[in-house]
Structure formats: structure tokens, C-alpha cells
Amino acid sequence: MPLSLSPKALFLTALSLSPLPAAAQDISAEVAANGLAATVTRLEAIATPSEADRFALGGLRFLRAIETTYQTRWRTGMDDPSGMIPLIRLNQGTAPDATFAPGDVAALFTQVAQDMETARAPLAGLPTGPEFTVEIRLADLWFDVNADGTRTPDEDLMQLLGPTLMGWRWFDRDPAAPAPVIRFDRADAAWLSAYTHLLEGLAKTLLAYDPTDALTRAAAAREAMQAISPPYAEEMFVIRPWVDALWVMLDALDQQPDAARLAQARDHFLSMIADNRAFWTAVETETDDNAEWLPNARQTSALGLALPPETGVTWLAVLADGEALLKGEKLIPYWRLGDGGGVNLSRMFTDPAPIDVKDWIQGSGALPYLEQGEIVSPENWRAFEGLMGGEAMLMSIWLN
User: What pLDDT digit, counting tens, does each position of 66-83 carry?
Assistant: First the structure.
């Protein structure tokens, strides 16, 4: 929901274990009143869940994983100055007594991987099963960033993720206009499942190159230098975070990675592509146009985004290139080779080795993965960029 989230017309009767009032409320109002954690707990207690219940549980577990990330960031002060690491860049303040330990990053992504598997579980079979709807008012969604159980305006989902969901339109919107209402249906279950595979694959990739040791040594070096002389303010607050983040990234890559986790990550990325195909197959059969999350060519998104008619076909062509790279059927161009050879990305996942960036630039590091074969063409990505104008990256996050 890189971030973004999900649902399409659902009204649950609030009974039994629910802390809701006796009058029935829908799932969206339940989250607004009680938060994500309590609503997930109630849904998990349903003995015989409907398709809508299962989708709601998967979607809210997904959102709960995002909430947990915010809470970890608040508690530890974890940050990513590079802006390159998914989820860590979700920043909404830090506790005054925040304490960061080098193992916190690996712990966070271990939790993310587990949470994505848990979120995906109730979605199995939904994209090809009976139709259902789950209605969500985005104004009802919030993340308990500081884990105090109390909602404040700066914890609203739209305040935290609005720019990610809507791009430049977020800044041109009427602030007084109501937040979108979205009706998620069975096609969206495939989209959500794809996103869980994407984030789990990214988490497993980061864990394969566990940065804990690099973070530990970076912290020790900082402390030793500060014992010699306090740093300049510019170094402390501007330069140092970027230098340390870059060093940690390069050092973590230059270690023997966990081969099992990289193999799992590759499988998740391939499953993401398969789920994307299932989504576009399912959504293409829809004839309604009612508060859509991700629309077909005849529909409009509740977010106010209209997709060109060729979007599905063009995006699937981009994903087909990604699949070919992950399977080793096509190669990534390498600057010292011509059109007849390139990097076998698949073998970097199935037969991994440390990545020394200077050696990869020169070629000796890349050599074990260089081979003759067909190079992936930039044509499909260029077609997607042309279709989306200046919003290709935003749309690729949304489409996953």
C-alpha cells in the first residue's frame, strides 16, 4: 500500500465478542471506533467466516502490519535517510525515550514477513470464488502510531498515506472534501494477495543480507569517534545519517547472504506476478462501476484515478519481463557487454554470493552471473511510462 490497502462492499453484523454497541455497525465503523487490533481479534474469532469476513480479515491484518511498523518506528527511532528501504520510510514521529538497537531492523522485517503470510492466509481461493463486497470509508482507518489506544488526527490513514495513494492529487484536493469510500470485491483479493507476496519477498531479501552486524559496527565507530571529539552539528544531523546508511547498505551486501531466504524471496516475487494476472483476469469481467479500488477500462477508481484502457495489458507485459528475469529466461543488460549477453538475475537468487559494489562496477564481481542470452527490452516499461505520463512510478506502486 508501498503502500496501499484494500476492501469493497461489506456490512458485518456486530455480535458476540464485539465490543461494539448493540446496534449493528459495519466493519469500517468498527475500525474507526475500536482500532485495527481489536477488529482483527473479533474477526479471527468468527467460527464460520463468509467470503467478506475472510477478505476483511486479510485486509485488516495487512493494515495491522503497517500499524506495527509505525509503532516500531515510534518506539525505536528507526529511520532510513536514503528513503530506499520499504516500510522504514513510514515516519510519523518518535517517542522521546526511543532507543534503537542494531537488531531492530532484522526484527522488524522478520515480523513483516510473518504478518504478510498471516494476512494472505484467509485470502486463499477468494479471487475465483463467489462474489462479495466489503465497503471501507478511508476516513475511518487509522494507525495507532504510539500504541496508546487513542486516535488523534495525525494518526488518520489519509494523513499518513494520502500522498502515496493519490500522488500529486493529494496536494490539489479540497481538504474539506470527504475521504473516498471504496468497495472491495473478489478481484481485489488477488491484488491484496499480490501485495503480501511483494512485501514478504522484499522482507526476505533484506533478511538474507541481514544488516545487524553492519549496524553494530557503525554504532561502535560513531561512539569511538565521539569519545575523541564531539562532531560538528552538520555532521551529526545532516551528513552522518546519509554516510552511515550508505555504508551499512554496502557492507551488508558484501557478505554471504542467506540462500534459503533469497530463494523464498524469488518465489514470492513470482507469486506476486501470478496473483497480478489473476487480478486482471477477474477485474476484466466486472460490469459494475461502484466505488472501485483498482478499476478496469470501463470503471473509475474511488480515488479519482481513471486508468487508460490499455493499462492491464501494458502492466502485465512489464510483469512478464520481470517474470522472465526471475526465471533466467532473459538477462539484465550490463554496461560492459553488448546485446548478446547480460546478468542472470535468477541465479543471483538461487546461487547467491556477496555483492561488492566496486567489483560489480568493474566487472569482476558480476562475472559469475554474466552469460550469453536474450536481453530484456525496455520497450514494455517505456510503453507503460508513455501510457501513464509522468506518473509511472506512482502507478507501479499502486498496481504492484
Answer: 999 999 999 998 888 777
